[in-house]
Amino acid sequence: MEHMDTEGEGLAISPLQGSLSRRTLVKRAAVAGLAVPMVGSFIASCGSDDETSTTGGGDTTGGSETTAAGGSETTAASGGTEGGTIKVGTFKPAGPLDPIAQADLGTYNVVSQSFECLLGPEGDGVGPALATEWVANEDSTEWTFTLREGVKWHDGTDFTADDVVATFERIVAVGDSIGGSISAGATTAVDPLTVKVVMNGPNASFPYLVSLFNPQTAITPAAYEAGTTLDGSPNGTGPWKLESYDPNAGAKFVRNEDWWGGKTPLDALEMIFFTDQASENTAQSSGATDVIQSFAVVGGDALLADENQNVVDVQAATHREVWFGCDEGNFTDVKVRQAMALSINRDEIVETLFSGKASVANDHVMFDLYPFHDPDAVEQRAQDIEQAKALLAEAGFADGLSTTLNAVDLGEVPQLAELIQSMAKEAGFDITLNVESTDTFYGTQWCVTYPCAGSAEFGIVDYGHRPVPDVYLLKAFKGGGDWNSSQYASADLDAAIVEYQSSAEEDARKVASGKIQTIMWNDVPAMIPYRYNGLAAYSKKFTGVQFTALGHTIVSAASQA
Amino acid sequence: MTKYIVKRVLLSLVTLWLLVTIVFLMSWALPSDPARAILGPFADEKLVEDFRETFGLNDGFLEQYFRLLKGLVTFDFGLSYGTKQPVWDVLAPTLWRTAKLATLAMIITTPISIFAGLIAAKFRDRRLDRGIVLTGLATSSIPEFVTGTLLAVVFGVKLGWFKAVAIIPEGTPPLEQLNYLFLPAMALAIVYFGYIARMMRAGTIQAMDSDYTRTAAMKGLSSSQVMRKHVLRNAMAPTITVMSVQIGYLVSGIVGVEVVFNYPGFSQALLIAVKQKDLPVLQVAVIISALVYMVATLTADLIIAWLNPRIRLEMGN
Predict the structure, then answer these.
(1) Looking at beta carbons, which residues of chain B come within 8 Å of A273?
(2) CB within 8 Å: B262 and A252
(3) What ipTM was reported for this prediction?
(4) What residues of chain B, 66 to 95, have a C-beta less than 8 Å from chain A?
(5) What's the CA dihedral at A271, A272, A276, A281 to 10 degrees?
(6) In chain B, N or C: fewer CB atoms in 10 Å?
(7) Which residue pairs from B209-216 have beta carbons closer than 8 angstroms and sit at least 24 positions apart in sequence?
(8) B154-166, pLDDT tens digit by residue?
């Protein structure tokens, strides 16, 4: 099986200010002449159908090239043949094709073929899509977006600033507020092609929050009502027009002849829905599909070893959070939390669960794949049973501590729980396991009431990829966050988050990130033992297929090889 | 006979009402919230609340129940929670697909199973009989999704003789669709072979051992005439009954095969409705399943009556 070479070049436009510089254009043209770089990452969406189980030690001798995380190259396909249809195997949408309410991989992948965001994936970060330029004021409390000229909706009407204003107002009205960053009335049309957005507070990451990596910010027409679905009212600005949709079978798209990005080499895109990973793998192996949006190491041996497949293996920020109840119960003492964090062997966990296709993490969400990660802020936590025992004894649990670990039955999470149980036993933790299905876990063990309260004192929950950690910080760890199952409240962390979001320059963000890393590492509101990769593949009959961190399959530049 | 049919239809309506009520009560008893189940645990509360309002989930028990009954009676099944499409638009294509697969499976298995049962009865207690019985036991013991997986891997992926997944491209001619449906149909046929062959064998043996068969033979009829005019008609009754139950199962119970071959049929749609707590789809799917069983068993009874005049008389009385 041939590996895909990736240049990993820094073609990313700084998210802080966006425009197509000449330097970027030249670089992009050069890369287009090479073998198609497959920069993609993959994720299971938060809390919904995570079918990317990577449990166990499958044989991965085929391997694949690890690429940079986060984005995808938007160059045209190199030397392919025009025409034809590509068949993409993807997860069955778990909900309606509602751009605002979409919450799972399958829905993201379908909706994003027609609806676009202001920014799209590019290189290691984000780049122009419906917006061509974006600039912040001095303290990142206001962002101004210049919209792309000449864009048309599929129904022939013009895309204007009014559509963006209406979309953002609609998002705020249903309660999302784009990660808490804006309020009603914050978005205004300066002119038909310019939009100004006033932040609730300094926010240097806002461009990411209105990119494809925050799918709920897909721009819809001004006249769209909340609750409208793509299949109910087909429209969009994207390269593909929805022709037919069967929620149980698949979706068919045809080329948008008026797409701003030019004529797609392929005539049509057919998405075929799957509910079972094994049958999806079989379909890809047998040629029934040309692209498989995701597959796991375990069960994916045939694909990994298949010489007719191009396999994409990309790092992502997808992770599992092992939260501790910090407000009441056994884990209120930080020494107990630190003891638990010291009792696990992270390298062994990564090897056992992912055959090495994951990265050890360090109990914070400022992962090493983010450019502002400070590698010197804290040392990598390693297993130290003796220190764990000592800390437990200091905390008054010299004879050990009994607790229940509640885990969602999703992917490799039950196996992670078993590993924690057996590893922590050496340090004196007597852990009983309670694994619950996704149908009941989120309502009984995690965030029982909204905003988050009533969670179990010790549990494992899943988090999907984000190109920036803002959502993790604001929702899961900031005091009062909607997903703060630890009930963690730290004024220092909250202040560090504000500092991070206000920092426009990379150096300043790195300093703030270092503070966040240090606080989370010391306080351990949650153990985060790893972040894991994603796998996707496409047939060598095609070229130019791209994937994103959130499971999007981008075939606007794909062609037959 | 007409009275019998009318009585069966009326009883069926009562059964359907009971089924709908049971499903509705169970959905109330279930702990999780359909809105959260559809939108996911990370959705904003306002979005969830809007969803509940849109679908009337905040209404009282009786209000929701009578709205459900009214909708069923007026054939206004409402919108699917999961897709916001009309329920019938969600289920109709799946029903058609399952009907195709079920029909093919029955076409393959019925003649082979009946023939095997007859042969087994004719050569009762001999090697051929034992071989057929053991084969039937073995095939009906293995779950159809296991058989399906084996068929898909061997004949689909390795040998490439048939399509390994039943993803039929739009516009595929009917004959070519057989290429896609053959392996899943075989997976089902292999399992049902056991049930039908053994039932046929038992019915045939009983008919062959009966007085009227002995009398017919002693009257001088040839063995083929005896088989055709006396044995078969009586032997078919239990077999037809078993087949009618299998037809009902083929519509709503073959989710394993549908998943293995990624065939978006009715069973999968039903399972997804259960998992997603998509109650409008679930309720209509349950009714359709029940209707299929009822129609299949009523049809079976009528066929048996047509074959056997004594039963016809009993129905008339």
Answers:
(1) 264
(2) no
(3) 0.80
(4) 80, 82-85, 90, 93-94
(5) -90
(6) C
(7) B210/B234
(8) 998 889 899 988 9
